[in-house]
Every structure is written in C-alpha cells, then in structure tokens.
C-alpha cells in the first residue's frame, strides 16, 4: 500500500525539471547512466567543458496551483493512513469496568445477583483501568457470599465422621487441595506425625461405685491412664472458688471428684483438681447447662496447652530427632467423661453434707447434690497413644505490593463424629472466601496489597494440634510475615447475639466491621445495632480462653488474633460441641432454620476484616488499644507490691516501662498523621513498627517448652502480669517483676524503630 501511494506521489510531482540518473539500455544489452538536466543544463555543460565539475541540483520550482493541491492532498492521506495503522497496532486491551452500584434488571434466584436486561449496548469507549474503592469491594464480596452460595458448599464438606488422621480426614484434605489448585492458589501440604490418644476397644474405661457399675463410651484425650480408688466428692464446675467451698467441708486429697461440664475447659477442671490432690476426675453434662438426652456422651481433651504434648515447643516432623519429652500441661491423674444418667446414679449414692444454697452447686438432676466424701469409687482409664499422620492444607492469594506479608484465615477440619458446626461450617466458609476473593481479582479488578493465606487444620479437637505444629515449625520467621490470624472455627453457634475474643490491636477493626456488615436477624440495620444501648466492648468482647482456636496464635506466636461467634441469645456456648449431636439438624434448630443466612453473614464478617487488612495502605491495627489494658494491669501489680509492704521491691520501674510503651504508641500515631499514606515505602516502614508490638510482648525469659504461652498479658505462667499481681512470695515477685519490666520496655523499644530514637529511662 505504501509503495502504491509512493508511485502516486511520484506521478504527481514527475517533471523533467529535476536532475536525476536513469539507467538506459545500450545496444549490447548493458546499461549506462544518463544524466537528464534542467533547462539551464547548457550553462552547466559549458562549465564542464571549461574544466569545472558538473552540478546536479534541482532547477527552480515552477509548479502550478493544481500541482500544489495534489501534493498537499497526498501528504494528508499518507499521514491519516499511518495514524490508523499505528492506532490499530498499539491500542490497549480493553478491560470491562466494574459496576458496583444498583443495576436495573432481573434477579438470579440461585445467587441473588442482578442480571441486566438485554439492551443494545452503547458504542464502546476506550477502556479504563479498574479502580475499586472500599464500597466497591464490600459490595462485590457481599454479592458473592449469599445464603444460596452456601447451600451446595455446606453439603460438599459435610461428612458423617472426620476424626483426625482418618481416611475421611485425609480425603477431605485432598479435596481442599484440589479446589485450591483450581483457583490457582499454589496449594501445599504441611505434614506432621503426632501422638493422639484414643480409647482401647479391647479394654474400655470403667467406673464402679458400690452397686453402680458402667463402661464409658466417651473419653478425654491425653488423660493419665491407670486404675485409682477414692472417696466420691461432688465439686460443681471445678473452678478454684468451687473447690474452696468443698474444701471447707470435705477432704479433697486422694478423692475422686465429680464435676459438671461448663464454665471452664476440661483441661482447666482437671488441672485445678490435681492441685488439690485429687486422684481422678469424672465430668458429666448437667441438664441445667445441656438440654439434651441424658445418655449423651462427651468427648474432649485435658492437655493444658496446645499442639502435640509429646513434642512441646518444636514441630512433630517425621525426621525430627529429639529425646522423649512431655508437655508440662499433661495431667498426671486420670480423667473421664460420663453421661448425665451415670452422674445421677452416682449422686444418689454420694451422701455427705449439702452445700450452702447460695453456692450455686445445685443443677437440674433429680438428686440432692450433696458433697459426698463417704462412698468409695474406682475409676479405670485405659486410653492408648497412637501415631497419626496429619495434613494441614494451605492456599495463597498473593498481594500486589507486599506479597511477603499476609493475613491467615484458618478453619479446623476434624471433629468428634459429624462435627457440623465445629468443622463443616468453618471449612465451607474458608473455601467460599477463597473462591470469592479469587473471582474479585480475576473478574472485577481487585488488587490486594498484601497476601491472604487460607489454612485447613487437622487435629484441632486435640488442642489445636495441627495449627500449633505449624506455628512451631515456622516460629523463627512467622512474626515478620503474619500480621493477623482470623479463626473461622465456631463462627456460627446460634442466632440472635454476637461475641468475640481478640487482641486489643483488633478491637477497632472489629467495631468498624460491625458497622459495615448487615445484621443477619434484621437486614435493615448493621451488626453494631445488636449491642443495644450498652458499650459495644462490654456487650461483645470476651477474654480469649486457652481452648479458643485463636489462642495459640496470640499467646504462643505473638500474632494479633481474633475469633468471633454468632450465638443464641442468653448463651455463650454451643452445647452440642464434643458430642455426636453436632449435626445438621441440630445446627439448623440453633439458627432458627436460617443456617444459610447465618453462615453467609459470618463469611461476610470474616471476609471484610481480611480484605480491610490487605487492602488499606496502613494495617488496620490500633496501636493505642493496649494503653488502657496496660495501665489497668500494671496498677494491679502495684497494688500487690504495696500490700506486701516490701522496701526492696517497687513497681516504679514497671510504671516507667509502661510510660515508654505509651510514648512509643503515640510516636507511631504521630508518624501516621505526618506521613503520606500513598507512599508505599513509608507505609511499609510504619507497618513494620506496628507488626512488632504483639510479638515483642512474648517474654524472652521463659522456655517455650516449659511455658509455651509466653505473652506478657494473655499468656499462662509466673511471667505474666496477672500472675505477678497474685504472687505472695517476695523473692519470686522481685524476680518476675524485673523480667516483666524489661519485657515491656523491650516492646516499647521495638515499636520506636530507630535505635537512636529509643527512650531508655530504666
């Protein structure tokens, strides 16, 4: 085409007035150059004859108007044609923009999303890069996580049984792996070889009290084994205050303690009893706390810790070569669950004095609830240790700015029996969140700054074994990458109320999310309205207990963590946990037959927290949130020191360290105010300072083997501020106070960032 236009151009401007060389054929077939000259060629020829050199220059232009017109026209055509070719070659690929507003059209019944009416589309405009604001993101997430979405998924992940390390557990792990692979999430397995405890089918656990004799179907994993005998004593829930009531009337040493389940974990009940010299513990569900049939059996564990108790502080890899060791949280006395019917038979024979009416010992069995101390009872526990291979399954959706920093969403996969609320719901939410975020990136243009890791844990029923083993395997680097853990376990227990447990760093994010997610009971208002007129923290927040799946992340690994639960009104637990009654029918009953709506609301809540954490330039962790808690806790230590009236011990330096912490938190807040938050590098520096807070609150002065929960405020052990505030031994108080002081000061120093900005006043 260009050659054709060039010929046209030459045709227009062709003139004998231009000097040019042409090749003319000769008689012998060769060619020679012939010079055609302009009109003044005669003068040039004369010059040549005179010895000068010929000049080949164009003669003066003498064009008419038509010639000039054709030249201009051809020039314009060439320019236009070249522009069209360039535009077609370099036109950017079109991206369909996202419309997150209201769309007029029909509603698809299976998804609840709107399908626009078929209309003649307007002429396509040049495509623009998709820009999603926070409202766009939340609307996209909500549209992808509907009650209809979960109808299929809940069925997909429901199993009749799913014990850790079983064939069903492994098959579901493979299924999750395959689904993550379809979503291009680069999945991987984290394999551990752990010791679990199960009943011995050939030698069932056994209880004998006079004429009352029975075998037990349920059991408590990690109980001590053996056969013991003692006086039968009733001790209510086994809390320290309960045992003090009993101790005033009955000798607890070498007794067998009968307790009702609830209020505290099985592990805490057994540990409290062991401290009083009790020989064995029996635990049953009282109708006052559990309104199900009286022959329902209970399952659980009594390890006062998390992870494999036979590899404390280090991961249970097959190639790990460590000498045999045991967790300090393993009980040294037998413990066993029994049914309400079994307990009623024992309480009818127990005898002894009646507790004070104000003690709250009386339940709803048709018995007297005496304290006992008269009848002999024998308890035999024959559980056996077994080696199991367990698989944690992971998938990742990588961030576009800081992919090396990530929030972890985790769900337990195993359960005693069907485990519908315990495992099916959390696993279904985990998978649908992965699918939703993947679609938002692939189809809607969402670009998270940071990464999201989706984790499916095994052996959660034995005390977060799978999750803790993963933490132990990556302890040296995990604090530099994981900035939050969101637990999906037990997120739906009922309908009507809402509770949560979290690091103070996440309180503001919880409040913000409650104001953005619709109330599943009344979609016209937000979840925040569920708190009524009470302060939201008073209504919603609960201390994080040891049996919370998020607890190891917070107290062992120093990762800001959160767990939340939709629950029935006037309840804070799910009575079917740890039983064979945790099935779809009972779950539907607890949610008032609105299971899909409740699960969708929980998924939206978890998803919005996760996306807020990976979307914003600055991490949504409130650095000022710890100040109030620290002030209250340090004051408790100071009061204890004053009460002991020891001149050599003072809380002054602890108060000074608290002041350093407050100033460091304020310096981060001021830096945030004075920083351009669109600057990626500046935000990364600020986020690094924020990420140090939780991890540096882990005490460096205790062993993770003997004292795994090292957190200064939320851990367990003599190093915690709460424990120091109750210490009566002056020498112990002096030592622990000094270590806690520098633990807190070290955290403040880490928050400051630059070593030349440190405020060391101690």
TrEMBL record:
Renumbered residue ranges of the record's region Disordered: 99-127
InterPro entries, alphabetized: PA_dom_sf (IPR046450), PA_domain (IPR003137), Peptidase_M28 (IPR007484), Peptidase_M28B (IPR039373), TFR-like_dimer_dom_sf (IPR036757)
Gene3D superfamilies: 3.50.30.30, Transferrin receptor-like, dimerisation domain (1.20.930.40), Zn peptidases (3.40.630.10)
Pfam families: PA, Peptidase_M28
Subcellular location(s) per record: Cell membrane
Keywords noted in UniProt: Membrane, Transmembrane, Transmembrane helix
Listed transmembrane segments: 67-88
Domain Peptidase M28 residue range list: 392-602
Topology versus the membrane: Single-pass type II membrane protein
A GO cellular-component term linked to this record: external side of plasma membrane
Biological process according to GO: intracellular iron ion homeostasis; iron ion transport
Domain called PA: residue spans: 228-296
Residue spans of biased composition, Low complexity class: 102-115
Family, similarity comment: Belongs to the peptidase M28 family. M28B subfamily.
UniProt-recorded name of the protein: Transferrin receptor 1b
């Amino acid at each position: 085409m260009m050659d054709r236009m060039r010929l046209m151009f030459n045709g227009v401007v062709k003139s004998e007035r231009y000097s040019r060389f042409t090749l003319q054929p000769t008689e012998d077939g060769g060619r020679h150059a012939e010079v055609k000259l302009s009109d003044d060629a005669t003068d040039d020829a004369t010059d040549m004859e005179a010895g000068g050199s010929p000049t080949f220059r164009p003669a003066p232009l003498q064009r008419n108007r038509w010639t000039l017109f054709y030249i201009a026209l051809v020039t314009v055509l060439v320019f236009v044609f070249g522009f069209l070719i360039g535009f077609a070659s370099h036109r950017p690929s079109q991206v369909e923009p996202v419309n997150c507003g209201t769309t007029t059209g029909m509603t698809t019944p299976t998804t609840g999303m709107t399908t626009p009416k078929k209309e003649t589309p307007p002429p396509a405009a040049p495509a623009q890069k998709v820009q999603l604001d926070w409202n766009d993101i939340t609307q996209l997430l909500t549209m992808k996580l509907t009650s209809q979405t979960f109808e299929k998924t809940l069925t997909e992940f429901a199993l009749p049984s799913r014990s850790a390390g079983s064939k069903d557990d492994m098959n579901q792990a493979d299924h999750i792996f395959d689904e993550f692979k379809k979503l291009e999430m680069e999945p991987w397995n984290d394999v551990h070889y752990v010791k679990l405890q199960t009943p011995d089918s050939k030698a069932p656990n056994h209880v004998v009290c006079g004429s009352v004799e029975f075998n037990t179907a349920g059991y408590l994993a990690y109980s001590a084994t053996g056969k013991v005998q003692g006086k039968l004593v009733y001790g209510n829930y086994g809390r320290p205050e309960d045992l003090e009531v009993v101790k005033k009337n009955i000798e607890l040493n070498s007794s067998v303690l009968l307790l009702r389940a609830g209020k505290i974990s099985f592990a805490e009940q057994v540990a409290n009893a062991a401290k009083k010299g009790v020989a064995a513990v029996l635990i049953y569900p009282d109708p006052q706390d559990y309104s199900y049939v009286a022959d329902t059996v209970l399952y659980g564990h009594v390890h006062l810790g998390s992870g494999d108790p036979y590899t404390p502080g280090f991961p249970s890899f097959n190639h790990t070569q460590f000498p045999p060791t045991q967790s300090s949280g393993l009980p040294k006395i037998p413990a066993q669950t029994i049914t309400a019917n079994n307990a009623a038979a024992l309480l009818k024979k127990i005898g002894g004095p009646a507790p004070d009416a104000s003690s709250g010992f009386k339940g709803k069995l048709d018995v007297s609830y005496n304290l006992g101390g008269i009848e002999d009872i024998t308890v035999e526990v024959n559980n056996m240790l077994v080696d199991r291979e367990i698989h944690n399954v992971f998938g990742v959706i990588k961030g576009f700015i800081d992919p090396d920093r990530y929030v972890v969403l985790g769900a337990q996969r195993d359960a005693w029996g069907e485990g519908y609320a315990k495992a099916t719901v959390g696993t279904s939410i985990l998978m649908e969140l992965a699918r939703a975020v993947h679609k938002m990136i692939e189809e809607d243009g969402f670009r998270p700054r940071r990464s999201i890791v989706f984790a499916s844990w095994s052996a959660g029923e034995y005390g977060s074994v799978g999750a803790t083993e993963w933490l132990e395997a990556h302890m040296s680097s995990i604090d530099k990458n994981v900035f939050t853990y969101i637990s999906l376990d037990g997120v739906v227990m009922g309908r009507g109320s809402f509770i949560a447990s979290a690091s103070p760093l996440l309180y503001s994010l919880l409040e913000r999310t409650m104001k953005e997610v619709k109330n599943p009971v009344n979609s016209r208002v937000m979840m925040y309205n569920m708190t009524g007129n009470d302060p939201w923290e008073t209504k919603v927040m609960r201390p994080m207990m040891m049996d919370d799946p998020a607890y190891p992340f917070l107290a062992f690994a120093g990762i800001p963590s959160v767990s939340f639960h939709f629950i029935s009104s006037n309840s804070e637990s799910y009575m079917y946990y740890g039983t064979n009654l945790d099935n779809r029918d009972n779950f539907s009953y607890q949610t008032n037959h609105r299971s899909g709506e409740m699960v969708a609301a929980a998924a939206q809540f978890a998803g919005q927290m996760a996306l807020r954490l990976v979307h914003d330039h600055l991490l949504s962790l409130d650095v000022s949130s710890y100040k109030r808690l620290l002030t209250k806790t340090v004051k408790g230590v100071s009061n204890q020191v004053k009460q002991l009236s020891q001149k050599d011990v003072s809380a002054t330096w602890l108060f000074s360290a608290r002041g350093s912490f407050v100033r460091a938190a304020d310096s981060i807040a001021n830096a945030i105010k004075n920083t351009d938050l669109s600057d990626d590098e500046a935000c990364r520096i600020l986020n690094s300072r924020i990420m140090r807070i939780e991890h540096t609150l882990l005490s460096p002065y205790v062993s993770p083997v003997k004292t795994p929960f090292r957190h200064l405020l939320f851990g367990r052990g003599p190093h915690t501020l709460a424990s120091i505030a109750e210490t009566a031994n002056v020498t112990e108080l002096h030592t622990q106070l000094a270590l806690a002081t520098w633990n807190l000061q070290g955290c403040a120093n880490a928050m400051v960032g630059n070593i030349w900005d440190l405020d060391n006043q101690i």
